[in-house]
Automatic annotation (TrEMBL), chains A, B:
Pfam family, one: CbiC
InterPro entries in alphabetical order: Cbl_synth_CobH/CbiC, CobH/CbiC_sf
GO terms for MF: precorrin-8X methylmutase activity
UniProt GO BP: cobalamin biosynthetic process
Keyword set, alphabetical order: Cobalamin biosynthesis, Isomerase
UniProt pathway annotation: Cofactor biosynthesis; adenosylcobalamin biosynthesis
Family assignment from sequence similarity: Belongs to the CobH/CbiC family.
Name by which UniProt lists this protein: Precorrin-8X methylmutase
UniProt domain Cobalamin biosynthesis precorrin-8X methylmutase CobH/CbiC: residue ranges: 8-195
Amino acid sequence: MRRTVHPIETESYRIMRSRADFDRFAPLTRAVVERVVHTTADPSWTGEVVADEDALRQGRDALLSGAPLITDVRMVASGITAREVTIGLDFPGVAELAASEGLTRSAAGMRLAAREHPRGAVWAVGNAPTALTELLRLAETGELEPALIIGVPVGFVGAVDSKAALRRSGLPAVSTLTERGGAAIAAAAVNALLYWAEPGGNR
Amino acid sequence: MRRTVHPIETESYRIMRSRADFDRFAPLTRAVVERVVHTTADPSWTGEVVADEDALRQGRDALLSGAPLITDVRMVASGITAREVTIGLDFPGVAELAASEGLTRSAAGMRLAAREHPRGAVWAVGNAPTALTELLRLAETGELEPALIIGVPVGFVGAVDSKAALRRSGLPAVSTLTERGGAAIAAAAVNALLYWAEPGGNR
C-alpha cells in the first residue's frame, strides 16, 4: 500500500529512533513495534510487544488479499482508516446472546463474528480480555482458524492471563506482556501491517 | 448520571487502588486520574495528569447542561458513548481550509468548529498538537471561550510544547506533562466527568 507520509510523522519516526533501538527486530515485527511506540510516544513499549514474524506476514498477506478484519470495539476500528473493518459488537443479536449464554457483549460479538468468518480472518482485540478468551475457545474447538490474532486487551482484570493464554495457544499472534494494551495499540499493529512496504520498512 | 457499573470494572478499580494512591487528589481530579489509570492499566499515569478542580467542575457542569463536546478525531469520540460528540475533522470544508491556510486538517477542523461553537463548549484533543495550538490561538484572539479544554495530544513532535502552552494560557484545562496522551486518555477524562457522582467519587 502506497500512502503519503506527513512530515510530522517522518520527524516523529526520526526522534523515536534516536530514543530506542529497533534494530533487533525482524522487519514486520519492527514495523509493529515502531508504530506502537509512535502511537503512544512511549519507548517503553519496545519491551512489551510479542510478535512472530511469520504470523505477521500471514496476517499482512490476509489483510492485503481482502480477508475480513474484525475488532472487538469501535474504538479499534476508528483507528484504522485504510480499509474496511467489522466490529464484533455490531452484530445483530449480540445483547441477546450475551444474556442467554452469560457472556460479556464483547465475547458474544466475537462468537457471532466467528460464525460468519470462521477461516482466514484477522482479529484485533484492543479492549476486552473476554473477547480474546472467546476467540481462544473457538480455536480450541476448531470453530475458528484465524490468519492472525492481534490480542492486546488492556486492564487489571483478566488481560494478562488472556494474553498469556494466546501465546501458549500456538495461534499466529501479536500480544503484549503486561496489563497494558488498548484500542490504539491494536489499531497501530494493524496499520503497521497495512502500511509496511518491502524492503525498507514502513517509511 | 446514573449508570450500571460492570463487576469487572468494580474489580479493576479495587486492584488499581491497591497499586497507587489517589487520596491526594481533589474529587473530580481523582475521578479523571483514576479513569485514566483504569483505561491504560498503567499506574504511572497518576503522576502525569494536570488538572484544576474548578476547571473540571466547570467542564462537567457544561457537559451535563448539554454544551457541545468537540473532539479532534473520531477515535476520541468512539470512546465516549454516553452523549453526543462533534468531531472537528467532520466539518464540511476542512480539507479546503487546511489547504488554503496551510493548516493541518485537525487544526482546520478546530477552527471551523470554533466558528460554530465559540462559547461554552468542552474541547477534547487526543491526537493532534496542531489542533490544540489552534484552540489556544483562537482563545488568545478572543474568538473562543471554552468551558474546558482537555488537551492531551500525543507524540514526539509538538505535543509537549502544545500542552505546556495550554497550562500557561490560564484557560480551564486538563493536560499531561510528557509526550504521552492519546484518544483513550481524552475519552477517559470526558467519561470521568460524565460518570462522576456526588459525593463519593465515580463508583
